[in-house]
Amino acid sequence: MATIYISIGSNIEPEKYVKAALIELEKAFGPLTLSSVFESEAVGFQGQNFLNMVAAGHTSEPIESVVATFKQIEKLHGRLPGVKKFSARTLDLDLLLYDDCICEQPVVLPREEILKNAFVLWPLAEIAPERLHPIAKQTYQVLWQHFDKDSQRLWKVDLL
Known about the structure:
The protein is α+β, with helices and mostly antiparallel strands and 160 residues long. It has 5 helices and 6 strands; from the N terminus they run E-H-E-E-E-H-E-H-H-H-E.
């Protein structure tokens, strides 16, 4: 069984869609370990604030199937295919890690946003503080400690 880490985000009816995603992800991958929920300003475009979190689960499915499941869940909850990367969305599910796999296809792993976005790194550091980033070879706790926290504003919110 592989351990997977999933980034969950929404800025269109975000409470509704984050909760819906958790239900669907638990159906697909069983019990999940959940980070806190964070609110953050939109990155890369002007838009409503996002709710973001990270969930960890386990699967025996290959990476391709995991990503296909994410796309199905996004579509089920109103995500339109082909919408530009930096835009409002009902639901955004990204595979951050699949065990310690390093690959370019079918998706880039570990996901580059881990080291670039506070709304990914902080929740990941919460639920996997001692886990090593497979390329940076530092723990997520250490990576978060050294992250430029003034570069992106985010704060914890009560949702779950």
